[in-house]
Amino acid sequence: MLFLPRVLPAECLRELAATGEQGGDAFYKAVLAGQQPAASSGGVDESVLGSCLAACGAVYGEEFGKLPLPQQLGYACDFYNLLEKMFRGNGGQIGDAARLEPDGMAGQLRAFIKLGWARRFPPVNRPPSLLF
What we know:
By secondary structure, this protein is mostly helical. Helices cover 54% and strands 0% of the residues. The relative contact order is 0.15.
């Protein structure tokens, strides 16, 4: 069975930043550097980010757990951003996501995937489209 921590401690994030691992977007890089992302006025809620990582592991399966932690965090950060937009759009805050049980977080990620908003894992290899 795959185990991912529900809470991702700040020490882990600082350790990843110290290794020089590179991320894909500004939010992810800010999390690794232990900084507040520019798009978020409230900073990163580590418990929600940890729950996002655990939900990714539950939904994406065992192969996801074999990815290097920085890549796993990239997926978790994408999910976190989607949750933040959803809660803010309804007048809430990202901290409200902490009330979701693990099954609820995984269900929300599945819904985002079905809507085409969240990345799929493994990534879908599509042939280049032809423009006429």
